[in-house]
Amino acid sequence: MISRRRLLILAGSAAAATLTGINALAGEEKEEHVVDPNVPQWAMVVDIDKCTECMEELIEKTKEDWHEIKPPCVVACDTENNVPEFENKRIDPQWLKILKVRNELEGSKELYVPLLCNHCRHPACAQVCLTKATFVRKDGIVMIDFHRCIGCRYCIVACPYNARTFNFKDPLEGLDHINPKVPRRSHGVPEKCTFCVHRIDEAMAKGEEPIPACVEACPYNALVFGNLNDPNSEVAKIVRTSKVIQLRANLGTNPRVYYLM
């Protein structure tokens, strides 16, 4: 019979091997992918204190459980991107979700944290995709080609941010209206945040600054979006001068979503 101590050692070794494998894949991706400094690299900064203030105000105003509350950013995301809403929340796709977290220290304040696709520079979801349906655009946005997707859900398992959801039902059954600018998804494929890529492409074609729907709708200016390759952009200045973190940065995915603490 294996001893408890040896079991822990083996478990630790397995975990280390898993992380090493992820970092090795990320390293291979780094060698293949060279970022053109002339191409925008889109990123988002999330101010957790402002998000928390927004949610606390909504909870106080509506007197509802926080699970039932959709702040303006989530409502805007759903409406803009044809994200359906089903009665059965277990199969409800979510591009932008709010989590409640708290430090383990006694007396720590509860924080409300938006979670979305982190548009990683070295995304694990793309590395495991059997058909290369998940890919990274030159501007850093992680996309899904729904025509290539076979619905294996490996990408959902691989994503360290739980940012992808699977369409168990036809999204049309959970939609009251359709935004014709956003491609509709069928059942049997995953979906996720795209930084409102249609807005980005449209704005760039007009020579304007793109604004995702969630950023536009946020009443607290808690979400900042912009081009990291532009040193004068607000998002680049915040990342350069403020205390920001990337979720699970130790995995080597190098996310483009930063959290301002």
TrEMBL record:
Gene3D superfamilies: 3.30.70.20. The keyword Metal-binding applies. It comes from the Archaea. Keywords: 4Fe-4S, Iron, Iron-sulfur, Metal-binding. GO terms for molecular function: 4 iron, 4 sulfur cluster binding; metal ion binding; oxidoreductase activity. Residues 140-169 form the 4Fe-4S ferredoxin-type domain. It comes from Archaeoglobus veneficus (strain DSM 11195 / SNP6). This is 4Fe-4S ferredoxin iron-sulfur binding domain-containing protein. PROSITE patterns: 4FE4S_FER_1, 4FE4S_FER_2, TAT. InterPro entries: 4Fe4S_Fe-S-bd (IPR017896), 4Fe4S_Fe_S_CS (IPR017900), DsrO-like (IPR054822), ET_IronSulfur_Cluster-Binding (IPR050954), TAT_signal (IPR006311).
